[in-house]
Amino acid sequence: MHSLEAKIRTETARECRENGSIPAVVYGKDVPSTSIAVGVSEFIKVFRVAGKNHVIDLKVDKKKYSVLVQEAQRHPVTGAFLHLDFLTVDMKAEVHVQIPVKLVGTSPAVVAGGELHQSLDALDVKCLPADIIDAFELDISLIDHVGKTLHVSDIIVDTKKFHVLSHADEAVVSVHAHKVHKEETTEVSVADVGVATAKPETA
Predict the structure, then answer these.
(1) Residue range 19-37, pLDDT digits in tens
(2) pTM of the model
(3) Based on the domain organization, do 104 and 142 belong to the same domain?
């Protein structure tokens, strides 16, 4: 499990950022909302590996919480983290998470010139926190002709660990025929050119 140190925050969120930390809050069942602060570099190092789908061992003073990053607000321009929400989880109770769908393999339909379109990026599932994975893989080599679509039901999922909430018939990825955009051209006759370039007669 990934570990992260935090401290109780008494200053405002702005003051916290000015002091080089990220303002945050930790909350959950039987855990009152508590304002905390985490180091920027420390959080980035953990978040790069854990993301939003892996449990983090959050240490706040003498207390320890198993948490997920529920929300990570970023600056729209710089991308810097502005505020974080940590949700405590019970390691023995299922949580509702979205796990990304990763496309693997090579589709014969794409090799033949078709366009790949992924309409679903993640699956909604319920599982134990310890069972959360980085992604579900979907083999697009199964798409052997243009017009074929793969659905949620085509994704191999360990049903003993994951309860899939996304509808089985929901489309995930498909291959369409490549669209050719024809440029409209205007035909100009020699007579029209002559009319346009001829000089008016003078009296």
Answers:
(1) 999 999 999 988 899 999 9
(2) 0.74
(3) yes
- 53 vs 65, higher pLDDT: 65
**Distance separating alpha carbons of residues 103 and 71, to the nearest angstrom:** 26
- Asked whether 16 and 9 are in contact (CB, 8 A), the reply is yes
Q: What angle do CA 37, 84, 75 make, to 5 degrees?
A: 110
Q: Edge-to-edge, what's the strand order for the sheet holding 95-104? A: 136-139, 95-104, 122-127, 163-164
- Strand (E) or helix (H) holding 47: helix 40-50
CA dihedral 5, 10, 15, 20 (to 10 degrees): -20
| 3-state SS class at 182 | coil
The residues, ordered by sequence, that sit 6+ positions from 31 with a Cβ below 8 Å of its Cβ are: 65, 88
Q: What is the CATH number of the domain that holds 131?
A: 2.170.120.20
Confidence of residue 203 (pLDDT cuts 50, 70, 90): very low
- Residue 200, in any domain of the structure: no
